[in-house]
Amino acid sequence: MYYVYMLTNWNNKVLYTGITNNLERRIYEHKNKIVEGFTAKYNVNKLVYFDYTSDVSSAIAREKEIKGWTRQKKNELIQSINPKWDDLSNELRGEDSSRCMTMGEDSSLRSE
Fold first, then answer.
1. By the 8 A CB rule, do 20 and 69 touch?
2. Contacts with 59 (C-beta within 8 Å, 6 or more apart), sequence order
3. N-term to C-term CA, the chain
4. What pTM did the predictor assign?
5. 45 pLDDT higher than 80
6. Which residues are CB-neighbours of 37 under 8 A, at least 6 positions away?
7. What are the pLDDT digits (tens) for 61-99?
8. Distance CA 61, CA 2 (A)
9. What is the pLDDT of residue 36?
10. Which of 64, 90, 92, 100 has the largest count of CB atoms under 10 Å?
């Protein structure tokens, strides 16, 4: 599976969009600042959105699409599945997908 995800900091002021093939591992890396960069510098480690697909091309296209959006549109996407901006990383172990979106093979289904 390939995941597109969004992280924020404690007060939801900074957003980061990324892609990975192992969401649980990647969130662990962000939370523990294992990789230097933007998320470590700005303490961005709260998972507020993710969706997934088995198609890497769809995941890459979705990441690029989201990165091109305005902050308002990104906020609306997050609020559509996570209105309280809770940290969804606690739900990863159970793979509770009730608050994530699933990208279809046709990425046009995912356009907002």
1. no
2. 2, 3, 4, 19, 52, 53, 103
3. 22
4. 0.84
5. yes
6. none
7. 999 999 999 999 999 999 999 999 999 998 876 555 555
8. 12
9. 92
10. 100
Domain range list for the chain:
2-110
Among left, alpha and beta (phi > 0; psi -120 to 50; other), residue 24 is: alpha
Task: Report the C-alpha gap between 89 and 45 in whole angstroms.
Answer: 9
pLDDT, residue 7, reads 98
Two structure tokens written together for 61: 């296209």
Which superfamily does CATH assign the domain made up of 2-110 to? GIY-YIG endonuclease (3.40.1440.10)
Sign of the four-CA dihedral 81, 90, 48, 5: negative
32, amino acid identity:
N
Side-chain half-sphere exposure of 111, counting CA atoms within 13 A: 4
